[in-house]
Design goal:
Length: 504
């Protein structure tokens, strides 16, 4: 590894009431992969948005040097002209366009107004073949892809531009294991070709797997940079959150009570493949105070099980649901909430959040029916209840009245969770509770889950985070191809037991 291809010097960025970055220095060598980690709201995405030209030249302070020459970015196009490509944390695609159009969005082949579709689809197929993404077709409409496939298409869009510097912000949140392997292979090949990469992730195992160096940010500052083989994981964690985390998975044992919930024969037809079910006759019970983990590979049908129970997925669904032994009809989320079921969704962008409302209003939203004064909400009650959760989860914002749209990705997730922690339904469905959430806040969320179960609430938790699944579940179901292929007791749950059943 040799000369610096990119330097950022004394970069400072403020938003109203927030100093997101202060005097940040970053140095990227040719052909290296630099990891960035740090708590939610530390400034990682903001730093990369400065680099990718998302802010105009007078919206940040500091210098950017490319190959030793000072440049000033005022638009995404300027940054791209220097070979800097960013794949954003949140999915951003033209939903009604094809995969091919999304990949070649700025350089569609053809002359003048005439698009050379033949070449467009051929080039796209070649890219997909190179990546080994056999389940994506060039002519597919983006809208029909699942979120992992969308993430892979976004990656290929950046790849197709032959970047000199590729920036990935939390790229693996929605990916299957196979897609993660593809990503890692592509990054290794790019590194061999001399391309440099910046890789933001909360998943330290990924940082260790792919990065050459790692930079840690806290509260808008860089607190350390290390060669990857010279720093231990616990040292990184301590640097990220400024203290030692003694117990990352503070699961407490709870007395498990009687059956509170049961489903029989859930069937959900596959959304795109005819005559196939994505959930295929799934039945299980849930007991009082229990955390029932649901493991399996991404795409196995786990989220669809939750969506079908909650009445969010309706098309062609059949199921029998019993709450406390009594059969109930759930045709919509409102029906589900009526019988005491809550749902923390996986996709905050689609379901969880109202962007232009404040943190406080989003948190109290699901609970409105329970709070005094249905229409004229009693401000003091909502405020104090929401404030408690805001403090406990360390939601990072100037105040609880800040609009959710301006929060960092992980802090938005904390708002979604708070909403349901306040509502305290009898049965809480949680899909990937801590995706995108930093280690410190994860432990806080687990503590809150303990409190909920100790007060008699039961939780069904879909998780792809293996340590989370293993440590937090009282019992665990494993799903493969829409069916239950394993049921593991507390004593039986382990990485290998889950994986074994997941690939059955
Ligand atoms: N458009 C905006 N308006 C106001 N504040 C913002 C805006 N974007 C980011 N911030 C604030 O800047 C700080 C840094 O946010 P940033 O998104 O860079 O964090 P992050 O390190 O990427 O966190 P995460 O791990 O949660 O994605 C946060 O306090 C955030 O609320
Ligand atoms: Mg971010």
């Amino acid at each position: 590894m040799s000369e610096s291809i990119l330097e950022m010097r004394n970069v400072t960025k403020t938003f109203p009431g927030v100093k997101a970055l202060s005097n940040v220095n970053l140095d990227l060598k040719k052909g290296e992969i630099l990891g960035i980690c740090g708590e939610n709201g530390a400034g990682k995405s903001t730093l990369m948005k400065v680099l990718s030209g998302s802010f105009s030249a007078n919206q940040y302070e500091g210098d950017i040097l490319i190959n030793g020459k000072e440049v000033r970015f005022d638009s995404v196009a300027t940054a791209q002209s220097y070979g800097i490509e960013m794949v954003y944390q949140e999915i951003n695609m033209l939903m009604m366009c094809t995969v091919a159009e999304n990949i070649f969005i700025n350089n569609i082949p053809g002359e003048g107004k005439f698009v050379d579709f033949k070449k467009l689809f051929k080039d796209t197929q070649e890219l997909l073949d190179y990546a080994g993404l056999t389940d994506i077709y060039p002519k597919e409409i983006a809208h029909n892809l699942n979120s992992g496939q969308m993430a892979m298409v976004s990656l290929l869009r950046a790849y197709a531009k032959n970047p000199k510097v590729l920036v990935l912000d939390e790229p693996t949140g929605a990916l299957t294991n196979n897609e993660v392997d593809i990503l890692m292979r592509i990054l290794n090949e790019l590194r061999d070709k001399g391309v440099s990469c910046i890789y933001i992730s909360h998943k330290l195992e990924e940082i260790y797997r792919i990065c050459d160096r790692v930079m840690v940010m806290r509260d808008g500052e860089v607190v350390g940079t290390h060669l990857i083989n010279e720093v231990r994981e616990d040292e990184l964690i301590e640097e990220m959150i400024g203290r030692k985390v003694v117990n990352l998975y503070p699961k407490e044992s709870v007395e498990i009570g009687e059956e509170v919930f049961r489903v029989e024969d859930i069937v959900v037809p596959h959304p795109t493949i005819k005559n196939r079910n994505i959930v295929d006759h799934v039945s299980f019970k849930l007991y009082k105070g229990e955390i029932l983990g649901i493991g399996g590979l991404v795409g196995a049908g786990r989220s669809e099980i939750l969506g079908a129970i909650f009445g969010q997925i309706k098309k062609g669904v059949s199921k029998k649901v019993f709450v406390k032994g009594r059969e109930v009809t759930i045709n919509s989320p409102a029906d589900a909430m009526e019988v005491g079921i809550g749902f923390v969704t996986e996709e905050r962008k689609q379901n969880g959040i109202i962007w232009m409302l404040s943190i406080k209003d989003n948190i109290v939203l699901a609970s409105l029916n329970d709070l005094p004064g249905k229409v004229f909400v009693d401000n003091k009650v909502e405020e104090s209840r929401a404030q408690e959760l805001y403090d406990q989860l360390h939601i990072k914002a100037p105040s609880i009245n800040t609009k959710v749209v301006s929060l960092s990705g992980g802090n938005q997730q904390k708002v979604v969770i708070s909403k349901w922690l306040l509502k305290k339904p009898d049965i809480l469905l949680i899909d990937e509770p801590t995706r995108g959430i930093d280690v410190g806040a994860k432990a806080e969320i687990y503590k809150l889950m303990n409190e909920l179960t100790q007060s008699g609430i039961s939780i069904i938790m879909v998780s792809s985070d293996m340590p989370e699944l293993v440590n937090m579940s009282d019992r665990c179901l494993v799903i493969s191809n829409g069916r239950i292929t394993g049921e593991l007791s507390k004593e039986e749950i382990s990485d290998t037991a889950v994986m074994k059943a997941a690939i059955m």
